[in-house]
Amino acid sequence: MGSPLILASGSKTRQALLKNAGLQFLAVPAAVDERAIEENLPLAGRDPVSVARHLALAKAIEVSQRHLGAYVIGCDQTMSLGDRIFHKAASVGEARETLTQLRGKAHFLNSAVCLVRDGELLWSEVVRACMQVRDFSVEFLDGYIERNGETILSSVGCYQLEGEGIQLFDAIGGDYFTILGLPLLPLLEALREHEINHA
User: Fold this and answer.
1) Beta bridge partners of 172
2) Quick check: 1 pLDDT over 60?
3) What CA–CA distance (Å, rounded) separates 21 from 12?
4) pLDDT bracket for residue 50 (50, 70, 90)
5) Is residue 175 annotated as part of the catalytic site, yes or no?
6) Residue 31 neighbours by CB distance under 10 Å
7) Domains located in the chain, CATH noted
């Protein structure tokens, strides 16, 4: 039996993507302070792509140090509008503000994934998806929030594409897995290259 494969995430969505791809793995959430990691990055390294990459690596390394010999998948996703990085809304009121700011504009989902073993980075990649939000009306926004309530707080963009959130968009550029927070195709290729076959 080969070395175990671990997903350093408690995300049910990411777990489902790996399970549906036929991988055998353990899910072990990382114990890291994401905001502290972000704040400790040099200003030049706080762009949305770099932040996603650093967070994914930090998560993978932390879990790797607790599970020596295992291959650990680290992942993180940032949402950005220009240079601004958004974080999950803490309330429905904050969610309304986020959606209002995104209205009629294109933002990016920056999904980072990496593979670590014994604290050493073996591979990493960041894939971006461009999300064009339509210029929806205030009436639509009110109804959307009323119908979905606090469930929209589970996503940094206050939407789930598999639900009513798809109605917020008029164009999407990027693959579905990246949007869900795990660039699955490049990850599967990396696992094959490192001869990690748990299917």
Assistant:
1) 131
2) no
3) 14
4) very high
5) no
6) 10
7) 5-193 (3.90.950.10)
- HEC assignment per residue over 71-86: EEEEEEEEEEECCEEE
Which member of 33, 47, 76, 170 is catalytic?
Answer: 76
Give pLDDT, residue 198: 55
Q: Tell me if 145 sits within 8 A of 136, measured CB to CB.
A: no
**Closest listed residue to residue 174, CA positions, set 86, 105, 109:** 109
Question: At which residue do the structure tokens 């195709």 appear?
Answer: 185
For the purposes of burial, counting CB atoms within 10 Å of the CB of 141, is it exposed (0-12), middle (13-18) or buried (19 or more)?
Answer: middle
Look at residue 190 in the predicted model and tell me its pLDDT. Answer: 95
pLDDT digits (tens, 9 = 90+) for 156-171: 899 988 889 999 999 9
Taking the CA atoms of 137, 138, 142 and 145 in sequence, report the sign of the dihedral they define: positive
CA 52 – CA 75 distance, rounded (Å): 8
Q: Is the pLDDT of residue 35 over 90?
A: no
Torsion of CA 170, 110, 154, 84, to 10 degrees: -90
Residue 172: half-sphere exposure toward Cβ, Cα within 13 Å: 14
Work out the average pLDDT over 51-69: 95
